[in-house]
Design a protein that fits this description.
The protein is mainly α. It has helices at 3-16, 18-29, 61-72, 78-104, 113-126, 130-147, 153-157, 163-177, 184-187, 193-196, 199-202; strands at 37-41, 48-51, 56-60. Helix 3 (61-72) crosses helix 4, helix 4 crosses helix 6 and helix 5 (113-126) packs parallel to helix 8.
């Protein structure tokens, strides 16, 4: 993908005002001891990450390429794909922000930090209402799509849970918060009924 196409990503995100709104709300809600910068850039790998040394969250253009590629086949239009991408990136952003808050405030976490980051991202977005819930679900869907049908040994050794596990966790928490609205998750088989029983408690 060319740099020109990456510039289109940046332009689309600016036009959507996605991160500007999110950051303005975060600045109003959380008083950090120093600035945390959020940047877009070419990283040489499909990734997003928080750098504790430089206190910076980076969203890589290569990750945007991967999200677009993974979700393109299911999208009925470029507009729909764009919405899915923006929501997925919003989930990813809050996941990385969670790592930042854990680092800055030395927050204790139980289990893996990656699981805690998924949890905090979901809690914040679900608490923001319908659009936030859809961001969590779109992020979860992307994780499931990118998992494919093959797992190599490195997937089991990764610091993250397996992508399908992350999908079911996120779907469970969204359902647990609003069971009536998201009953379709069970009806269409996205969330097993036996897992759904405990989702309100999990949330």
């Amino acid at each position: 993908v060319s740099s020109a196409e990456h510039e289109l990503y940046e332009q689309a995100l600016k036009e959507a005002g996605l991160f500007e709104v999110a950051l303005a709300e975060l600045n109003a809600a959380i008083e950090l001891p120093f600035d945390v910068f959020v940047v877009l850039g070419e990283c040489g790998t499909s990734n997003a990450f928080y750098d504790p040394e430089n206190k910076q969250i980076t969203l890589c253009y290569e990750l945007m390429d991967a999200v677009a590629s993974d979700l393109a086949a299911a999208a009925e239009s470029e507009e729909q794909l764009g919405v899915w991408m923006i929501r997925t990136l919003l989930f990813v952003f809050y996941h990385e922000l969670s790592h930042a808050l854990i680092d800055i405030y030395a927050l204790p976490t139980t289990g893996r930090e990656e699981d805690a980051a998924d949890q905090l991202s979901a809690i914040v977005l679900v608490g923001a209402g319908e659009e936030g819930e859809m961001a969590v679900l779109d992020g979860a869907t992307w994780l499931l799509v990118r998992a494919g049908n093959e797992l190599d040994e490195s997937a089991f050794a990764d610091v993250h849970a397996l992508d399908p596990q992350r999908f079911y966790n996120l779907a469970c928490w969204v359902y647990g918060n609003n069971q009536q609205t998201h009953s379709y998750l069970i009806e269409y088989g996205y969330l097993p009924a036996e897992r759904a029983v405990g989702c309100e408690g999990e949330y």
